[in-house]
Amino acid sequence: MGEGVSDRWVGSAWARWGLPLLTLALYASLLARWFAGRAADSDAGMRSAPSWPLALLLLAALSATAFVHRDLLRRMAAEAGSVWRLPRRELALVTAVIVLSFVYQLPTMLYPAGIVDSDSAINGLMALHIADGRVAPAFYYGAIFAGTFFSHVLALVFVITGPFAAGLPFVAWLFYSGFLVGGYLLTRQAAGAAVALIVALWLAAPPPDLLTTLVYAEYSQLLLFSIWALVVVSACCPGLLRQPAWWAVAGVLLGLGFWAHGLTIVVAAAIGSSVLVFLPLRRVVPAAVLLGLGFLLGLLPGLVGWGSELGIFLEWFVTGGDRGTGATAVEAIAGLWRVSLGSLMLGVRESVDLPIWR
Question: pLDDT tens digits, residue range 150-165?
Answer without folding.
Answer: 999 999 999 898 888 7
